[in-house]
């Protein structure tokens, strides 16, 4: 499984870092390694005789299935180096072939890959594009200029590289029509690629297109959009026009992708692979593409083992490096990512930990959290409450949008959890084949990083939650004013982009109320809805300490109905099925609480009418009402 035929080293895993090994000899004549981070080029890793975890099985998987693939993973999880490896395997290049870069590695040793090797190794003309560093500008023309320059440069490079397969007339034509025109547009340059690809196909080449960090232009433009999205009118209407930079970048990337995948290269390439952090919806960028599949952190059962380290691979590295660090420390600090059925460790932090001989928040400190912070701040005064629950060790259940468009990030609070998960700050596990996922912080590194980075915000959230718990505790004394004040502040929080719509139903309001209990174990909660003659009721039961709290929530339209409604709600039986959750609980009290929400005519805020009633807990309560 591992490449052990090279002299000592550490990691050249398939990730955007590698180590240069400097040998030193101590008094015991043992070799020690100095491991500065340097490269992500697979050829350099092999030529410099690095010892690395053999991930070449990924090549076989990349060549199976749909011709066109998108693979999303968090930053620094090995996307760039995996593409480098794939390119060197596919590309027909006599100089590369002579180096025998893959000798002794799984892709050549495993006999089950024999047909893949026979049909694909060194059979391709590979066109590789890295988009990440083309997004430095912040105005609508910057990316266009950078992309033009990039595509012009590589058209020239590929023309030179494949010149032996082009006639002198071909080269003259390319130079005159495309390369000598410094003002050539993307459309004109792409016609130059079409010309080269057609000639290479006629020469017997298969064609592969590899595009790394395809979503970088959207991320850059989206950052700018967040800076401008602060107006109160936008907050209230939940409407926002994407910036001219975003629209321009999207149009250019769509033109580029459709050219290589559908319109410009005909017949289509033999292989197209995109990598990135997020999946920009098929309806947005990848529309009309057949034989295409996205492999995201939410649903990828194919490429899980190949981006990041598995436990046995870390054990191998610990042993190879003669490290005193224990696998338990790596499990605590860096694992917890589930890609398909595989548990993955953060490769960047694992590498730096072995190098520095100490555990720390390497990955978190290597990136920016500005987008994350801005998105969470859009949730207003209560935005960090759910982050507080997460760092406190609880899970959240949220709807995920794997094929998210950036516009949707402004439409619902739940959408930014998708971005946080895609970026690697959360781990998501699907619940019963629905679009609801259980979210947790994957490991200690992310937890410590978030606690440090958002210390002030999380302290404020803790105070807010303690205020809520204090209001709940006061219900035992049938005092309801504190809870009334808290709920009215929470539901009428117009500092939030995602503030609660006063037209929501009782069920929706109840679900929002339930979120405030995300700091309680879910096995101690039960919710349901029921119908009376007058209204729909949302029912929630929570076990906390030695007390069972029942909440019956309705929405009314008339202030005069408040007294009768709360009285009727208090008399309702517990929801069917709740006995299973509380029959074995060591409870001594039951607090019944009725909450009636009212929107007064002509107003845009909710009022809450609350009554509470304490009684002694009795085991038959949940059975008596069945």
UniProtKB/TrEMBL annotation:
Keywords: Signal
Domain of life: Eukaryota
Statement: the UniProt record of this protein carries the keyword Transcription: no
Signal peptide: 1-22
InterPro entries for the chain: AAA-ATPase-like_dom
Short name of one Pfam family: AAA-ATPase_like
Domain AAA-ATPase-like: 36-232
Protein name: AAA-ATPase-like domain-containing protein
Organism of derivation: Bemisia tabaci (Sweetpotato whitefly)
Species lineage: Eukaryota, Metazoa, Ecdysozoa, Arthropoda, Hexapoda
